[in-house]
């Protein structure tokens, strides 16, 4: 019987404590070491000593590590893990800049290590069901993917703005649902809260397969909203990723006897179906995919890890959004 994988965790903040809980519950994995330079505010370490840095974490003898430190430290910590031959799951975004992300991708790929990025929305049951239904043709031709991700400012974020922190969720899930990359984006941002980075963005984009996209993301709303709407020729799917609910609004059929408009195709309200779907915890699914990738278990594209290269492409799009807002121009993305 194979020994369990030896796991480490660096970063014991809000996400770190959830990673610690899931790692302790995950079959085939033992959490053996944790680290955070500023301590353990949520008691995530349990009986484990809180180490000071990634070097001490590596010295514990790891097979894999989860990186939940602030974004600005992803490159430094990730490169140290790669150099030590440790597989890593890095919280999103992959890094603070595209150049840093490229160095991480090269470090892990050149050593044959599994490098994953924590774009957890891909593992939300509502979105996994939605992708399968789109792929099965239930919507027919897809016209648009629109996302809304709004809520109050999280005090945990200080080193990046809303585009790289929250917006990367929507960039990644949109391209993943459509199975097509972004080719252009036009965005507008604002900074209303006195912090150095943008706290609201509105963006429209185009995917390579012709689907158009719309994204509203902010830290300025007292109302928390996490909604993805996919509209196509047969209706619209609405996924609420806060509750993992998926609803289908079907196009109704109408018949007109007025000859002048009978040739025009319209849309009418039809039946509304709320699907009953299993709702496993997305973070657990993400960790299971990471574990299986290390062990060489085959998974389909819908349930496999988000690779560092995919995370890098998402970061490129985020930087294109910011550049578009700064220039007030549409940005066309170059092929990766």
Can you walk me through this structure?
- This protein has 336 residues and is α/β, with parallel strands linked by helices.
- It folds into two domains: 5-121 and 285-305, 3-Layer(aba) Sandwich (Rossmann fold), CATH 3.40.50.720; 122-277 and 312-332, 2-Layer Sandwich (Dihydrodipicolinate Reductase, domain 2), CATH 3.30.360.
- Helix content is 31%, strand content 29%.
- It contains eight helices and 15 strands.
- The protein has a nine-stranded mixed sheet. Strands 3-2-1-4-5-6 form a six-stranded parallel sheet, sandwiched between helices.
- Strand 4 (64-67), helix 3 (74-83) and strand 5 form a beta-alpha-beta unit.
- The longest helix is centred in the last third of the chain and has 20 residues, at 308-327.
- The relative contact order is 0.15.
- The model has no long low-confidence stretch (mean pLDDT 93).
- Keywords: NAD.
- It holds the Pfam family GFO_IDH_MocA_C3.
- Residues 128-237 form the GFO/IDH/MocA-like oxidoreductase domain.
- Residues 6-119 form the Gfo/Idh/MocA-like oxidoreductase N-terminal domain.
Strand and helix map with partners:
Layout (H helix, E strand, L loop, with lengths): L4 E6 L3 H12 L3 E7 L14 E2 L2 H6 L4 E4 L6 H10 L3 E5 L6 H13 L4 E4 L6 H11 L6 E11 L9 H17 L3 E9 L9 E8 L4 E7 L1 E13 L2 E6 L4 E8 L15 E7 L7 H14 L12 H20 L3 E2 L4
Parallel strand pairs: 1-2, 1-4, 2-3, 4-5, 5-6, 7-10
Antiparallel strand pairs: 7-11, 8-9, 8-15, 9-10, 11-12, 12-13, 13-14
Helix pairs in contact: 3-4, 4-8, 5-6, 6-8
